[in-house]
User: Fold this.
Amino acid sequence: MSESPAAQLARIAAQLQSSGLNAGTSGNVSIRVTDGLLVTPSAVPPELMTAEVMVELTDDGKLRSAGVPTSEWRIHAAIYGTLPAAGAVVHTHSTYATALASLREDLPAFHYQVAKAGGHLIACAQYAPFGSPELSDAVITALGNRRVCLMANHGMIAYAPTLDAAFALALEVETLCQQYLIARSVGQPYILSAEQMDDVLERFAQYGKPVS
Assistant:
């Protein structure tokens, strides 16, 4: 029996807590559904995050179910409305991504795995108040054609075709932020060139495909 979208959200919300990517009621998760989105509720602790409390919205944010959606629902809706490849979105206040975002710096190509986000770097979105349309606009701008961005003085957001893939990507980016900040604490990391990152992106495009 396949796992329902609501059950997927509850499972990933628990994994975000157990992995340390979120703590308490911070962060939120969503999944695209027909003509709308299903999101985690506002101010509900992880231990109470069951499939039954998930909130369904239309594309323009009208309620289709009971409950109060996460205050960041606008970002999720904006990503689905702008980026057809987005099937699920994970937003975290993870320690190292948030630390780097508090410096309002991009994550540069200190490691080739930065290309997992789809570009030469992971940009940091400009600061705007949580839940605001301005923050949604800033996130869309910072994402560009990439799948992850940092959010100034806030955290990180990642999208992927599936919820499991979005979670895995967020976990990888948190590790990259940790590695970068450790390297920065003892010196200045060497940054890969645009040509080197183009090569990595091309290799990733073929990764996992059969050798002809």
The helical segments are 5-19, 73-82, 95-102, 133-143, 163-186, 194-206. The beta strands are 28-33, 36-39, 55-58, 88-92, 124-125, 148-151, 155-160. The longest strand covers residues 28-33.
